[in-house]
Write a structure and sequence with these properties.
Elements: E1 2-3, H1 13-22, E2 25-28, H2 40-52, H3 65-70, H4 74-93, H5 101-110, E3 114-118, H6 123-136, E4 144-146, H7 164-175, E5 182-186, H8 189-199, E6 203-207, E7 232-234, H9 237-251
Parallel strand pairs: 2-3, 2-5, 3-4, 5-6, 6-7
Antiparallel strand pairs: 1-7
């Protein structure tokens, strides 16, 4: 189902007309977007346990995980990062492709729209995911893959957590387009929607499988600020493909 966000964020006509005329590319988050993310409960439990044992974290409330981690001691942050990396690696090793994903990527390719992966996971895992996509459809490929260890230039060290908004600008520079000509798609308000809006993307799409947010404690809580409001919400990548089909049909 294609829907405006509950209570409700509208995909207004100016948005559709602008993108139908100028859409150059779509940037996708990976974990929870292009592949299913079924490890949230384990991640939450691990971070809570680390926080409870941390001198700076034991009195913290049950907030957004990124907020909790930011308030931990240096050792607590290290443990949290290691725990998340290990859980996500197991998740990638047993990855499940998001339903409708290969068909969407192939559809965009057929219509001349560039595709990029932008993930906080490692680049090698993103290439593995692309390999699994092409096993489903040989034309389900990406023009650019950017992981947290992707090396762009000498001013950024590999494996440095660079804000996604900055990465979006780098992708647009490579594609020689303006951020207003791309769409950011992801499952996290904090990590995908906020960063896409900060970068000045032409639109941001929140994926909500079965119509609900994946987890209120992992960057999916929608706030009142414009930065935290997606332009469009969809329940599946199949629904998003239907939206793009309508967009391209209107442009014809």
């Amino acid at each position: 189902m294609i829907s405006n966000y509950s209570n409700s964020y509208t995909c207004n006509q100016s948005f559709s007309k602008q993108l139908s005329a100028s859409l150059k590319g779509v940037i996708f988050d990976m974990d929870g977007t292009l592949i299913q993310l079924n490890v949230m409960r384990e991640i939450i439990q691990q971070i809570y346990q680390i926080a409870d044992n941390d001198p700076l974290g034991k009195d913290l409330g049950r907030d957004d995980l990124e907020v909790i981690i930011s308030k931990l001691s240096p050792e607590g942050k290290r443990q949290a990062k290691k725990a998340i990396d290990e859980i996500l690696q197991r998740h990638v090793d047993n990855m499940i492709i998001q339903e409708g994903g290969p068909e969407l990527i192939a559809f965009l390719a057929q219509n001349g729209v560039k595709r990029a992966i932008l993930t906080r996971n490692y680049e090698k895992n993103a290439f593995l995911m692309q390999h699994n996509y092409t096993r489903e459809r040989n034309d389900a490929t990406f023009d650019l893959i950017v992981g947290k260890d992707t090396y762009f230039d000498e001013s950024y060290q590999p494996v440095q957590e660079i804000p996604k908004a900055q990465r979006i600008h780098q992708i647009c520079a490579i594609w020689r387009c303006h951020p207003s000509e791309v769409i950011m798609v992801g499952d996290s308000i904090t990590d995908d929607i906020v960063e896409g809006n900060r970068a000045g993307c032409g639109g941001t799409v929140l994926l909500q499988p079965k119509g609900y947010q994946l987890n209120d404690y992992y960057g999916t809580t929608v706030g009142n600020s414009l930065e935290r409001k997606p332009t469009l919400c969809v329940e599946s990548l199949t629904d998003l493909m239907q939206y793009f089909f309508m967009l391209f049909t209107e442009n014809d």
